[in-house]
Amino acid sequence: MITLAVFVFFAVLALAAAVLVVVQKNAMHSVLYLAFAVLSTSGLFFTLGAEYLGAIQILVYAGGIVVLYIFVIVIVNLTEIVPERRPLLAKIVLVAVPVGTGIEVAYLFLAKGFPVEARPGGGPGFRALAETLFGSYLLPFELASVLLLAVLVGAIVVARKKNLHDPD
Amino acid sequence: MIPIEAVVVLGLLLFAIGFVGVVVRKNLVVMLMSLELLLNGANVILVGLGRHWGSPRGAILALFVIIMAVSEAAVGFALVLAYFRQKKSYDVDALDDLKG
Fold first, then answer.
1. Contact at 8 Å (CB) between B22 and B35?
2. Residues A71-106: pLDDT tens digits?
3. Are the Cβ atoms of B78 and A159 closer than 8 angstroms?
């Protein structure tokens, strides 16, 4: 019961922060609400019994990605507020279609119930997670490290100031 | 005990909000942020299903989604910086060079 209450608390926080990320005019305010949403999601992971993922979420998202966003906004001095020039009808349609689709699927789930019964015994522990990750999922794990290396090199190459007269 | 329907519905709503942000906003940085929200919604569903089935695969898939999100953010920001150097703007409407 307490777990459910904590879950609902974090769920409401995450949803409110997510909506605020989208509707803010100033990008810096959006980043702050994004940090809020990410930390709430990490709380959701903890209540769902995925402690490892919650910790990763705090470290990588709140400590890495949000700081990266703040750096970029400060570096490029994002003071220009991009005007939303879309007509009102297009905006309403663009909001209504994804939200309507989400509500439709949610309604189907709630009306019919989830088709698969829960397995008793709760979530998997750390040991099962580690054994599966470094057993069956070893190849994707190593490929992910190669991907991160490629991203590191690629981001530096793309973001570097180009000097045409200097070959390096 | 958290009902699985609540987890799936919450993930769907987060996904829908992120999708709205990507489609509606015209600020490149805010679009990237909404993309992170969208991936977070998918992660919530993955973790919930992993717990529902008592399998660690949900958390592992969510871990790979996080790795992918980090890569996407890093490359996306490199592109935003390069783009800003060219155009001095964040408006995606300035990206119409190939329209002919």
1. yes
2. 888 887 766 666 667 778 888 888 888 888 888 888
3. yes
What does pTM read for this prediction? 0.87
Contacts 24+ apart (CB under 8 A), A108-112: A109/B5, A109/B8, A109/B9, A110/B5, A110/B9
**Token pair of A43 as six digits:** 């709380």
**ipTM for this prediction:** 0.89
How far apart are the C-alpha atoms of A22 and B37, rounded to whole Å?
10
Task: State in Å, rounded, how far the first CA of chain A is from the last one.
Answer: 62
d(Cα B96, Cα A165) in Å, to the nearest integer? Answer: 29
DSSP 8-state symbol, A119: P
Q: Which one of A98, A118, A156 has the shortest CB-CB distance to B19?
A: A98
Q: Do A34 and B57 touch (CB under 8 A)?
A: no
Q: Which residues of B touch A133 (CB under 8 A)?
A: 56, 60, 63
Position B80 pLDDT exceeds 90:
no
In chain B, what residues touch A93 (CB-CB under 8 Å)? none
Query: For residues A79 and A75, what is the distance between their CA atoms, to the nearest angstrom?
Result: 11
CA distance to partner chain A, nearest, from residue B99 (Å): 19
Tens digit of pLDDT for each residue in B17-31?
A: 999 999 888 888 888
Partner residue facing A41 (CB), from B6, B44, B81: B44
Interface check B6 vs A, CB under 8 A: yes
Q: Determine, for residues A76 and B70 on separate chains, whether the beta-carbon distance falls below 8 Å.
A: no
